[in-house]
Amino acid sequence: MKSFTYEKVNSAEAAASAAASNSNAKFIAGGTNLLDLMKLEIETPSHLIDVNGLGFDKIEPAPDGGLRIGALVRNTTLAADARIRRDYGLLSRALLAGASGQLRNKATTAGNLLQRTRCPYFYDTNQPCNKRSPGSGCAAIGGVTRQHAVIGASDACIATHPSDMAIAMRALDATVQTVRPDGSTRDIPIADLHRLPGDTPHIETTLTSGELITSVTLPKPVGGTHIYRKVRDRASYAFALVSVGAIVQRDGTGRVAVGGVAHKPWRVEAAEAEMPRGAKAVAARLLEGARPTKENAFKLSLVERTLGAVLTEAKG
Amino acid sequence: MATLSFSVNGEVRALKLDTRTTLLDALREHLHLTGTKKGCDHGQCGACTVIVGGQRINSCLTLAVMHEGESVTTIEGLGTPEHMHPMQAAFVRHDGFQCGYCTPGQICSAVAVLDEIKAGIPSHVTGDLNAAPHLTNTELRERMSGNICRCGAYSNIAEAITEVAGRPA
Amino acid sequence: MKFDTPATTNPIDQLKVIGHATSRIDGPLKTTGRATYAYEWHDRATNPAYGYIVGSAIAKGRIASMDLSRAKAAPGVIAIVTSENAGKLGKGNYNTAKLLGGPEIDHYHQAVAVVVAETFEQARSAAQLVKVDYTATKGSFDLWAGRDGAAKPPGRGDNQPDTTVGDFSGAFASAPVQLDATYTTPDQAHAMMEPHASMAAWEGDKLTLWTSNQMIAWTTGDVAKTLGLPKENVRLISPFIGGGFGGKLFLRADAVLAALGARAANRPVKVAMQRPLMFNNTTHRPATIQRIRIGANRDGKITAIGHESWSGNLPEGRPETAVNQTRLLYAGENRMTAMRLAMLDLPEGNAMRAPGEAPGMMALEIAMDEMAERLGIDPVEFRARNDTQVDPEHPNRPFSQRQLVECMRIGAERFGWSKRHAEPGKQRDGRWLVGMGVAAAFRNNLLMKSGARVRLDGQGRVTVETDMTDIGTGSYTIIAQTAAEMMGVPLEKVVVRLGDSSFPVSAGSGGQFGANNSTSGVYAACVKLREAVAQKLGFNSADAAFVDGQVSSGNRSAPLGQAASDGELTAEDSIEYGDLAKTHQQSTFGAHFVELGVDVATAEIRIRRMLAVCAAGRILNPKTARSQVIGAMTMGVGAALMEELAVDKRSGFFVNHDLAGYEVPVHADIPHQDTIFLDETDPMSSPMKAKGIAELGICGVAAALANAIYNATGIRVRDYPITLDKLLDHMPDA
Description:
The structure holds three protein chains of three kinds.
Chain A: E1 5-8, H1 12-20, E2 25-28, H2 34-39, E3 47-50, E4 59-61, E5 67-70, H3 75-80, H4 82-87, H5 89-97, H6 101-106, H7 109-113, H8 120-123, H9 165-171, E6 175-179, E7 185-189, H10 190-193, E8 212-218, E9 225-231, E10 242-248, E11 254-259, H11 269-272, H12 279-286, H13 298-315
Parallel strand pairs in A: 1-3, 2-3
Antiparallel strand pairs in A: 4-5, 5-8, 6-7, 6-8, 9-10, 10-11
Helix pairs in contact in A: 5-9, 12-13
Chain B: E1 2-8, E2 11-17, H1 23-30, E3 49-52, E4 55-58, E5 71-73, H2 75-78, H3 86-93, H4 103-118, H5 137-143, H6 154-164
Helix pairs in contact in B: 3-6
Chain C: E1 2-3, H1 27-31, E2 49-55, E3 61-67, H2 69-73, E4 77-82, E5 104-105, E6 111-117, H3 120-127, E7 131-136, H4 143-146, E8 162-165, H5 168-174, E9 177-185, E10 197-203, E11 206-211, H6 216-227, E12 234-237, H7 253-265, E13 269-272, H8 275-281, E14 288-296, E15 302-313, E16 334-343, H9 357-375, H10 379-385, H11 404-415, E17 428-429, E18 432-444, E19 450-456, E20 462-465, H12 475-487, E21 494-497, H13 514-537, E22 545-547, E23 550-553, E24 556-559, E25 569-577, H14 580-583, E26 587-599, E27 605-615, H15 622-641, E28 647-648, E29 653-654, E30 673-677, H16 701-713
Parallel strand pairs in C: 1-25, 2-13, 11-12, 15-16, 20-21, 27-30
Antiparallel strand pairs in C: 2-6, 3-5, 3-7, 4-6, 8-16, 9-14, 10-11, 10-13, 14-15, 17-18, 18-26, 19-20, 19-25, 22-23, 23-24, 26-27, 28-29
């Protein structure tokens, strides 16, 4: 871990100005992913801005009937919130499927969205990685790829996004509120937050330098049956091989987002039109153009079969 | 370097630290409270679990300087060999450990898990999200899954926790 | 004490302390965080410097150049040790690869430098500034590719690479029912919770190492050999070990680099190997390819059994002895086993919990299940029909005790085996396909010389000192029980001190030989102490009784402590073994039963029930013995369902080299586990009449799971781990 200076800020303005004055600064809140990466010098900020004092730790009603979740709300708090459990069960379930109790107590809503990939080649600094060291190549391609992306990947990167929570947020059509160093704010639809790797896998989100997530807003509840099904080798404390987050209405329509398959939470709205026709039809559309490796081709049938189980469960 | 003042096991402690020092290393290397263990240093094993402000966390993935004014409880604060915490005594009785290295983390986690269930926090295996979770073997095992025990004492650990929770094993 | 005739009645048979389910005497220390592990000796070195290891970035080749200038200039750096400035280093008797690499590199993450700094944070940061340029050369990293060129390894004592009895190929060819199948087991990691860690302090040319090590005498010798010191100048202290499983049998890089770092820094240095380095830097259980052929008559009698195994290792490394159990476990007149060893440039392969039998039983016990099905015989019954009470390769050698069939039958009854559907894929519970599986458990009992010293003080307190280690096995407690039983005192009157090279040399912890041998060494020392006590009190030593803190002979009686009233009494002895292990085959036996569910949609596997029945001689402490067995069962679950060091066959390293990537079972994977110990004493094994159990528990578990998965789904997977991707294409429609 490289040396850094540390500062605790008490207002968004102070956070913004601290970020503006140091291009190699990073915000830190829960720290559960950032410190992990700093120990390996995959992240090397020279200045840390501790944003835990900003007060973005409330879950409040939003004007349109939804909920506004402060960026600093811890994963445990969010999953346990009565309103989330009642109206956004998918989100609660996805959060509880992730990490461990200890990590969920620290990890924040914004930090969870901004997690970096768990690709083992990204984590091993001896290996080339376009995400870690742009232009160095991708050691995962042609290597051990059981966990890697099957769709939306590129010749530069086949990493997946590891978040469970983000899958639920994507299916729920959340929007992300941010503030930039110049004080301006904006709303980013969750669909536009994460990027596909393309030629620039080191650029993972559409956030600009120093831009800080202040909250995530859920639209008003859409009802339906909420199911998050995470498939993994061990029963807990493991990243997903694949996960399926679904909201299924009584008439069989609904929404589906999938994790463990791509560089971002994977949702294809056009595929959802196929939901009344069943999992096979949805999966075919959802995974159209997939380019799996020999080791991870199983994810295609796993998505279809898991989705099938989810739709069956939703029917009751 | 930075300064830090916080409460550890009920005692106020002041430290001057490299900002890079994790809470775990502050406890182990600076306060010599070595009961909290470093198993992986990357949040992948749970051996470093401590209770901060009533909540269990991995002390390896948090900077010490971020805990100014906070209250930390480590395994040493739960009990002593002469006066063990009920959870510590139950681990001994049920042989809920072997090599002992993950044990402080398991015990800190177990104490916090019972509080989490009491507080109504759901888990991955909770059947009805809108009801209070029950204290079942399945619930305990899911909630304890962030604490790896390579010796494989899990079955006995579950019995120790169940006993402390006041239910038959 | 020489143990060369079968044990008769002795003070251990009183079973006043031995044989009771006793809580660990070190439990209060461990559960309150007061047990001191290798990196934690703050009171012994008040100002240690911190070492951080740099691992090789290539698997094979040479260091072309190293630039230490930036690292040396980094804040707090005191010294950097590399092969260039370390001086001449030897290689330990128990090491295959050098512990400090350079200029030649033998494997990925082989240590190439240690950076010593004032603080951990400074050392870690400076280590990243060590710049190494490598010239990589082509290596061999693929066991399958190396299989055809694999050579016959040299034999070691009784363990020869090949054995043959009768006419295997003729008998197999003419057998009416045959099985010829190939199984694979992957490379596996010990992944103990405490990383390899050491603190070193020099006083002149004398070195003290506080370390985490299973075998104190081996490692003391290898420290001396590696550093070129007389053995007397090396002191090892290792009273608490945060798990080993074979990974801490040997001297490893943490200890060598702490010692070299401390010499260079001229002050105590401590080094804990960073977790992401452990998987490639240290040893692992090597992968195997195993071909098993079984021929049988239609009545279920095996007529031919053949087992071949291929594994890989670095030059001078040894094979994984996966055919061992097949030489002993089942009857059959025509037999063959063979081991071949391929040269691979992966990290060093070596012992992990039940080396040989653990991966061997993973394969053999699937084969037995397959064969039973072909014969249409229940798998419990099939094993019973092929029981043997003698070593099948040497029929003049009986087993000292062999209750395999009893284990299987009792287990079947307790587990409700009769409820199993013989036809697979027939039991459904909601979304789950449910199946049961069984496997035999088998592991040899090893006899090793083991010594101890016992002291008696005026208060009647008994102190035991031996370099035996407690790696979670319960050594402290069973040694205390042994001394209490022998000296007629309550457990509270016994102090046990372990893991110090200044104590008498013991068997150490490995190969499930620790419990029986170390307690037998304590028994021997206590016999001597009893004689000394009797003599001191003027009693006839032959008939003196040691009961309740009193020594009695005829109508005379005196408090035990009186014998030491004018000074401590000390006795030291070792147990040494004669030929009983040659005349009698000593093994431990068991049966594993598993019930599990396989999700019909996702093929996720979740265990419902587990039972192990063990026959392993006298159980010294049922509480700690149960822990050994459930722990081994849990590791067997990992082997069956998730554990695999994934090899990058281009660059030659284990890719998933941390505890997120190398998954081991968590709480949620493990249901309540039942264990049953059969009543058994083995007078051939030792005066304790005990045998090992810690490794028996892992042998066969994984196959029981594989067989249960087959029973649940009808899908036979012969390549471990059995992950859902291997089932998915064959699963029925959900």
